[in-house]
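step: validate -> pass
step: tokenize input -> pass
step: predict -> running
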Amino acid sequence: IGAIARSLQDKARESVSVLDFYANGVSGVAVDPTGVVDSTLGIQAAINAMATIGGVVFIPPGQYKTTAPIVMASGVSLCGAGNYIGISATREAVSSIYAQHTGVAVISLKGCIGCKISDLGIITAAGAVPETGLLLGRSSASSAGYHKFESVSVYGYYSLAAIYSIASEDNIWLDINVWVFGGGAKYCLYTGISDSLSTGAGLTTSSNLENKWYAPFFINSSTDANAACIFIQGAQAVGSWSFIGGYLTAYAGSYIQIDSGTIDALDCIGPFTFLGMSGELLEGGDPIYGVRLTSTGTHTLPGLTVLGMRLAFLAGTNHYQIIQPGNLVLESPNIHIKPPEAFPYALCSLQRTQIKNGSVIVGRLGEPTPLTFMGDFANYFGAPYIAASYTVDSQNVFRLQGTVNGTTGNIFTIPSDLRPAANMFFFVLANGAVGRVLITASTGVVSVSSGSGLILDLSTIQYKIA
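step: predict -> pass
step: emit ->
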């Protein structure tokens, strides 16, 4: 109804198949879906054919060998027939580009605007290893980005990172599967404002804002202690990066790392959001950090949101769900991280005096944590009454609870990161009279200095950690 007559030529101009083009520019040598003949120039010719007006380049089922980077053009969509049929480093997609070279990328979007890549596998194997699988960035100060990636797998061996996104903005990523098998790469995703890993792409430094990821699946096999599934190189013009759902699997290093101050010695613009992500350690591996925050110099990280994250760790005293250095201020964070699977498999190390406003509940700090008595002090009541313990709420308020008895002297010690900034006195109920409790800021020792044979109610002792 209402159809308009159009020529076959006009319809053909809207999309092309790579099988319509010749490999190596030689007539009679077709683009090869079996991965035997080099298809680089044929695929590139198909993209170039759509570069002037924009359109769809279709990659039918098959594995297409390439020996140089495939360079995208603005407005072009590169669409396969499916991105996943199995797990291997040589064939895991219905339609896949199989790179066998040491170039800057399997697919480069340098300087491009408004591209789409979907239903496609990007793979490499050990041997000739490209620097990256997907390369995004700018060729000038002008904007680059506004891309959409949907149902794309990036598997195999890379020397720098599987996905390397530098100053590419307003991108949407949906159902992206990444597995770094090796090749020297430490990152599934690396992003920042400048080409800090020194690719051969010649990328231009600029702002790096507005990237949204939905249900990514990252696996990192790197054994490097500084590896990360997601690495964000923070700077003044980096922010508005969001990850919604998804799964992270790490062998070593961290699941997520945000580094501040290394590039331009300035604070990030923020925010950074991680909602409902989960993760597990790769078989045989031992990641040390969940969310690892690092800083060169003293900086502020605004608007960090981490909600509902569940990460797996091996047992160990130096494993961290989240770790914040003393030279990094968290401004208005919203961090609610579930306890680790079993205590004490992972710790949380936050500098409470360096958290400004916001809401923070990590691990079991929102639950009562028992205290270890000193001297002859003990709980006055047994179960089911509350034992001497502490909690820390989302506003950094430290509270004691329970009833204890003993003689004058030291009762217990408060952990170093939860102590007040200065010595504090509290008046408490003691045997129906008033007792005085001192918290010594430098040592965290809680002591009582009035009366003997005391029964003390601790529930009035609280302060804000700041």
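step: describe -> The chain has a mean pLDDT of 90.
step: cleanup -> pass
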